[in-house]
Write a structure and sequence with these properties.
Layout: H1 12-27, E1 33-42, E2 54-55, E3 57-70, E4 75-82, E5 85-92, H2 103-117, E6 125-131, H3 141-156, H4 165-183, H5 190-197, E7 202-207, E8 213-217, E9 225-231, H6 242-257, H7 268-273, H8 278-302, H9 310-322, H10 329-340, E10 345-349, E11 356-362, H11 366-379, E12 386-389, E13 397-398
Parallel strand pairs: 4-6
Antiparallel strand pairs: 1-3, 1-13, 2-7, 3-6, 4-5, 7-8, 9-11, 9-12, 10-11
Helix pairs in contact: 2-3, 2-4, 3-4, 3-5, 4-5, 6-8, 8-9, 10-11
Bound molecules: alpha-D-galactopyranose.
């Protein structure tokens, strides 16, 4: 059945070929190299990153590919082929200022600007971009662009950041600044950390308070499990509105409670007793309980009990639906359908308000769960969901 097709990722060879061919036809000559960086799925720990909390992403096999050549002047020439359309931009490094360029240019050129904030000067460059990370699906396609461009600019300018985890953590900061201050989306550092600091076959336990990480072996195959991604195709955007409001509420709650971040709350009941605003109290309860769910999830995985994580995934979704209020009908229908069809656990992933749900399933049950989601969407009159397999993949790197 066509609708049950799991959309595959490009191989590295295929992605590099596409980016290089676009480079050769656009700019003549060849690029200095091709770099790629992945989208992500966050397994648990949602809306915790900007609260100094914990999250647990994996990198997807779906990547953005950048072919890039250093220039000796300050010109920047870009071509991007996303979902068929080829877009061009030509200008100078000094033209790359927040609010002055089209949004797709912001993710690319904003990296050059952001390096500059650290007094790291990049030269001009020619670059082509192409990607198989689904866009506007909450799988961090924008972070994949920033991180692939960051790795490329790092290497052609000889900064040497991409070669170590410490250097990559610095690249994460550069990319988050692009997102926050150039593009104007006040997100945390989950997405860029997932794209640059993950290891193949592992989930990344990221502590957003101090930036420390732990690689958590996440071997789905060994337990005959799969992580199915159900892309609701409901519109999702973080640059405006509700995401920013959630963050502002958390910051106001932290101020009220006299803490730097909600991570510092150790006695939830005592904290809640001090918050008279009922909505703020629910937001705080989500963040504090979600951070604990990440701890509990990692403890189970490290004890070899992956089969027991379902209730934590389900509780995470329910908290995001009822307390944090960032789900939407499509996400709730996807999650309910997956659970009813026998998923071990299911939840939304990413920022919410649309985007993707994930379902942890026995490999034999994957098609049943996928079919149940497709049928439930048809029943509710929603567009058919897209389906992906989340295979814990490697962080961004040079491909050729
Ligand atoms: C988006 C943001 C992240 C994070 C998640 C929610 O993906 O980009 O920084 O806040 O939402 O966990």
């Amino acid at each position: 059945m066509d609708t049950l097709q799991i959309v595959p990722a490009w191989s590295a060879t295929e992605g590099a070929r596409r980016a290089s061919e676009l480079f050769e036809t656009t700019f003549q000559g060849t690029a200095d190299g091709v770099w790629a960086s992945p989208g992500r799925v966050n397994i648990i720990g949602e809306h915790t990153d900007y609260n100094g909390g914990l999250c647990l992403p994996i990198a997807l096999p779906h990547r953005t590919y950048v072919a890039l050549r250093r220039r000796s002047d300050d010109e920047v020439h870009l071509a991007s082929a996303f979902e068929g359309d080829v877009l061009h931009w030509d200008g100078r490094l000094s033209d790359l200022q927040p609010g002055t360029v089209p949004s797709w240019v912001g993710y690319v050129g904003g990296m050059a600007w952001s390096f500059g904030r650290d007094e790291i000067t990049v030269t001009g460059f020619d670059a082509t971009l192409t990607s198989c990370v689904p866009t506007a699906a909450g799988l961090s396609s924008s972070a994949a662009v920033e991180c692939a461009v960051g790795l490329a600019l790092d290497e052609v300018n000889g900064f040497g950041l991409g070669g170590s985890d410490e250097g990559r953590a610095q690249l994460v900061t550069v990319a988050v600044r692009t997102e926050n201050d150039f593009v104007g989306a006040r997100t945390g550092d989950l997405d860029q950390s997932a794209s640059l600091r993950t290891h193949e076959g592992h989930a990344l336990l990221l502590d957003c308070l101090d930036g420390s990480t732990r690689q958590v072996p996440f071997d789905l195959d060994a337990q005959n499990l799969e992580l199915l991604v159900i892309d609701t195709r409901a519109t999702h955007s973080h640059a405006t509105g509700a995401y920013g409001q959630r963050r502002a509420t958390c910051e106001a709650a932290a101020t009220l409670l006299g803490v730097e971040t909600l991570r510092e709350i150790t006695d939830l009941d005592a904290a809640l007793a001090r918050i008279s605003d009922e909505e703020m109290a629910r937001r705080v309860r989500h963040v504090v309980t979600e951070i604990q769910r990440v701890r509990d999830f990692v403890a189970l995985v490290e004890a070899g009990r992956l089969l027991d994580v379902g209730p934590l995934m389900n509780a995470s979704h329910d908290s995001l639906r009822d307390d944090y209020e960032v789900t939407c009908p499509e996400l709730d229908v996807a999650v309910d359908a997956a659970r009813s069809a026998g998923a071990i656990g299911a939840r939304m992933t990413g920022g919410g308000f649309g985007g993707c749900a994930i379902a942890l399933v026995d490999a034999e049950k994957r098609d049943d769960v996928a079919a149940a989601a497709v049928a439930a969407f048809a029943e509710h009159g929603f567009a058919a969901p897209r389906l992906y397999a989340a295979i814990p993949s490697a962080a961004g790197s040079r491909i050729s």
